[in-house]
Structure formats: structure tokens, C-alpha cells
Amino acid sequence: xxxTVDFEECLKDSPRFRAxxxxxxxxxxxxxxxxxxxxxxxxxxxxxxxxxxTANKQFMNGIRDLAQxxxxxxxxxxxxxxxxxxxxxxxxxxxxxxxxxxxxxxxQLQSFVKEDIRKxxxxxxxxxKVSEEKENALVKNAQVQRNKQHEVEEATNILTATRKxxxxxxxxxVLQINVLQSKRRSEILKSMLSFMYAHLAFFHxxxxxxxxLEPYMKDLGAQLDQLAVDAAKEKRDMExxxxxxQQKDYSSDDTKLEYNVDAANGIVMExxxxxxxxxxxxxxxxxxxxxxxxxxxxxxKFKDNPTVVxxxxxxxxxxxxxxxxxxxxFEVVSPTKSCMLQADSEKLRxxxxxxxxxSIATAYREKGDESEKQEKKSxxxxxxxxxxxxTKEKLLKGESALQRVQCIPGNAACCDCGLADPRWxxxxxGITLCIECSGIHRSxxxxxxxxxxxxxxxxxxxxxxLMCELGNDVINRIYEAKxxxxxxxxxxxxxxxxxxxxxxxxxxxxxxxxxKQLAAVPLLESGTKILPQSQEEKRHSxxxxxxxxxxxxxxxxxxxxxxxGIHQSADDSREHxxxxxxxxxxxEPEGDKQEPSVLCDSKQFxxxxxxxxxxxxxxxxxxxxALAHGAEVNWVNIxxxxxxxxIQAVRGGSLVTCEFLLQNGANxxxxxxxxRGPLHHATVLGHTGQVCLFLKxxxxxxxxxxxxxxxxxxxxxxxxxxxxxLLRLARMNEEMRESEGLYGQPGDEIYQDIFRDFxxxxxxxxxxxxxxxxxxxxxx
Length: 780
Hints:
CATH architecture of the largest domain: Up-down Bundle
Mean pLDDT: 77
CATH topology of the largest domain: Substrate Binding Domain Of Dnak, Chain:A, Domain 2
Largest sheet: 7 strands, antiparallel
Number of helices: 24
Low-confidence stretches: 252-256, 378-398, 519-603, 771-780
Strand content: 5-15%
Structural class: alpha+beta
CATH class of the largest domain: Mainly Alpha
Number of strands: 12
Distance between the termini: 110 Å
Radius of gyration: 45 Å
Shape: elongated
């Protein structure tokens, strides 16, 4: 260590020593000023950096808001989300840099100033004090007279003591100076080195982060180049179209109004008309009218639901009106009301009148063709399995999927925000949704919610019936059971999207509002419980008695069928269950018969067992509750031949129950301990509708059980013509697709039509598919 002030010179107290002290003291004073300034600048830099991070975070939040706003554009939303996440990481790295700067510069240098330099100042004060005392002792010793021996001795002793004290304090002062001069170098360099390493880490992290993002940025740049080319082409096309349209003669708008009865969107004609109000003032209002779906409707604004003027054009007539003061008027008259309308010109009036008349004729022709088609299908000579009675009834009612689903309690408003007239649905949950909530449901993934349009998509009959079995009220009683307890406010239709998204995720993904305590699942509506039996009782009473052991607890117990909506008496239930077991006996050896799961006597059970039992009992609300409590849809009952809820749904005989499980992820090919899957069981029991459903859902009809029998061989042995037809047709269609390389294709039109007919019959006329149970099954 280099000595700044020499200890020997300190003892001499020479002018060189004093000059060295003066130089060191001035240097330390300057050092203190520099360090104080550096610390203040560091504090200002940190404050400014944090303000920058705050502003940068606000900018990043703006990018995220823009990404959410652009949710309909996948490219923009994905890119902005990635960029905002990267910027958020950079903000985090900046905060780490500022924290390290505060520790390395501010804290470390402030400690050096406050501790080491303060010790130097204290030592300096002591040195100056003892130095002054030494000077005073020297002066006093020099001034004492020789003849005053006592004063001479006293002055000498004081000088000796003062010199001794001076040497001790001076040496300490010199030591403090030398230590300070050496330490300041290490402290300053150590703090700056730490600061520079913080910068090194910051830039390394930023480099690594953007190096990962670079391939995506390059790919996005290539896409933007292509977008620029496409945009230029679109601009040229639009300019050409603009020029073409500009050259046309638009002096009279009424010449451009045309009607088309075969329009793809169903709108025959549309345009503005004045409508006379039915109030006392007879005011005229301009509205946007259209002829669509054999109806005359109008709207005030585009987002408004159309107001129906004439529900069925076949029941109305149209005529000119020349007896009022206004020009170009015509009247549409129906059995219940009349509507006075005014066009902008005579040509427009004639066009509207002709359009209405043509639509009336078209409506009559279409209805006649549909009726004739249904009559042909219902005729025995055609050999078709479909009966047209219910289809005709629905055509007369004019029911659509939207109308049927919205008739269910609670379905007239969005399940999650309450917006009226929802047009979307979650098919595995059985609820209706508005368009914004449906978008949030889509983002959850199909394992939580499968979204479908009630107006744009086609609906299979079993799926439509599933929607009608559940509904918003039923599902909300399950998924919002604890909503008031936890103190969460349900979002409204006008709430922000972020609030709705957080609520929907908490409701369906995290299931925060589901009541955790499972309740008992009653087996019979009347309250009758299934009592356990001893083995001796089972041997003497038989399966029917075992199943209906609790029948005596009620005068007239009822069993509700989820599929047919019909209440049966206990006698009917006994006959149905007896015939079911008898059909099973065609296939199961006597020693291997399994009693239905409803024989267990447990008031509370796990969610998987609840789903298993509710599937047999055709109780969709209980099944939905079990899934909400976390039941595995492919739960296996070890005690009952490893049967699954889907197999139990087959045994219960409900098509809708099977559809509900399949929509919620049930594996159609899971088999029990005897190698029998749902298709095997449906074939054994003669459930034609379920066989049709499983084949449509990809069931493996080549799978064999422990006896080496596949579903087709079982159906042939049972002489079930309908199921044999379905299985052979499906096998033939599969072989044809494989030979022609049409993997993943649905098949030819004949195959689709036949399966569509069976699906319609299984959902709407199930009694026509019960030929096997009614005629061929042996009675118990």
C-alpha cells in the first residue's frame, strides 16, 4: 500500500508533514463534494428511469388494449400480444437494472461518505485540537523565567505530556488518512464495476429476448410484404370498381331496385319505405324493409332485431292505395292487421308490389313441395323409416333451433351477462350466449366449452334435444351456487370484456362458484330409495324385485324419462327394467350378470360415481353437476365390470344422455372388463338410435369382446334388422372411403341420408325404433 503521509514526518511534525496534511485534507474535501454530486445524479437517474418504466408500461397496456380490440383479426391480435409481452419483459429488466444501480452506486457510495469520510473529519478535529495545545505548551515553556524553578518544572511537565499526546493522535490521524486514501479507490471501483455488470446483464437479457422474437418478426415482415402486395391489388380493383360505378347513370335510384326469390341470404328484396304508424296521429316514419323467410320485416337501425309486419306471406295480400293524399302508397293486408307503406317513386312501388306477390306465390309453392315430400316419406310403399307427421307439425309451427332453444327457462337471455335474445350456444354445457360471451367461451378451449351458432349452423336432432334438456337456469344453479356467498358480482351486458372474461374463467374453468358439498342423488322422483339386499334376498327375489325394492315406500311412485318426457308408473318401470335385464341375458352368462348401479345405497358419493349413476337415471342436471364437481367423464367403476358412464347411459336407454357425455369428451370406444364398448351394449339392448349415434361419432365396429363377437355378429344373432342395416352400411361406407382414399370424408349422400333419417326418428319418434324390444325380446 502506498503511504500518502509518512509516519516519520508525523513524529517530526515537519513543514513537509504539514504541507502533506494540507494537501490530503483539500483532496478529501473535493472527493466528498464529487461523491455527493454523483449520488444525487444517481438518484435523479433512478427516478427518471422509473418514470420512464411507468410511461413505458402505460404504452404497453395501450398495445394490449389494441390487441384485445383487434380480437377478430388473429394476425394483429397475436402480433400485438407477443410484442406487449416482450415490452413487459424489458420493463422488468429495466426495474432490475435500477434496483442494482441503487445498491451499487447510491447505497455503497453514501455509506463510504457517511462512515469513512466522517471518521477522517473526526480524526482531523482531534489532531487540530492537540496540535494547538502543543503550540501553547511550547510557547509557555519558552516564556518561563530561569529563576522560577517551580514554574520551569511545571512547564516542562506540561510540554512533555502534550508532546506525548500529540504523537499518539497524530499517528492515528495519519493512519486514518492512509486507510481512507487506499479504501476510496476500492469502494469507487467496486461500486462502478457492479453498476457496469448490471448493465451487462440488462443488455444480455434484452438481446436474448429479442433473439427469440426475431424469427417471428421476420415471418411477420414477410407476411406484411405480402399484405402490401394484396392491398395494392385490392386498391386497383376498388379504383376500377369505383370508376365503373361512377360511369353508371344514377339519376334515378328506383331503377336499381331488384328482387331475387332465390337469393343466397334469404332476402328477396330490401330497401327504404315510409310506414304509417297505427297511432292516432298516423305519423309516417322511414324504415328499412326486407322480404325474407316468407316474412315482411323492418328495422330502424341495423343492430335492432327485425320487427315482423307479416309473419306468413301466404296469409296476406297487397294492393295499391290511391285514396290517400300521399303518392306511391300501397297496403299489405293480413288477417290480423294492415300496414300502409309508401315508396319513393312509382317504379319502386310497382317493384315492391311485384316482389310481395312473387314471394307469396313462392311461399305457397315451397310449402306444397315440402308437404308432398313428407307424404312420400311417410308412405309405406317407399320403404322409408321416417314418419312425416311431426315434421309437418314443425313446418306448420315454423320452429327453428333458435326458437326451440330460447323457449327453455332462462335461455331468452345470455347465461353469463344477461343480454337478451342470445344467438349462440355452448353445446356441451347446454346454455345460450351472446356473441361477446361466445367469443370468450371459444378462447377457453373446446375441452371447456363448444360454441355453435343457433342461426348459422345446422343442428342435429339429438344435439337440439340436448339443448332443450338443460338450459341457463339449470346450469346457473350449479355453476353459480355460491355466487352470493363469495360476494362476486355477476357482469351485466354493458360490462367491460375483461370483466366478463375474468368472470367466465372463474365460473367454468376454476369453478369458484360451484357448491363443494355434493348432495344425495335421488333415484326416484317420489322420494323412494333403493334399499340394499342380502345375497339370500337377491337369489329369491330376482333382478326386478331387487331394482324395485323401495317401491313400497310410496303409494304411486313415478319415474321420469329424460328422452320422452313421459311419467311412467312403478309397474311400467318394473316391466321396462325387467325387459332390459332379459335382453342382457341374451348376451351375458348367468353367473356374470351385473346389477345396475342404482342398487347401491349411498346418499353421498364422489363426482365420478354421481355421473355414473345419473347417466343410468337419465338425469342430465345431476350429470352436469357431477362434471362441475370435477367428475372424470370416462370414470371407470371397478366394482361393476369397469363400466363407464357412457355404458351406463346406454343401459339407461337415453339417446340425449349419450350425446351429453360425448359432447363432454366421453371416449366412444372405452370398453368394460368383458371387452364390450358402448356400441356392443347398444347392440345387445337393441337401442337403434344409440347405435346410429355411436357410428356417427366414430365407434369401432370391428372391436370384439371376450367371446370374439363384434356388434354386427350380435345384431345378426338377435335378428335386429335396423341395427344390422346401420352396421353393414357403415362398414360398406368405410371400405368405400378407404378404397377411394377419402379418409376423413363423411361418405356418400345415400349413407348420410339414411343416418340422418335414423337420427331424426331416434330423437322425434323413438317408439318406431322399439320394434326389437317390443316384439323380439323374451319376457322375464
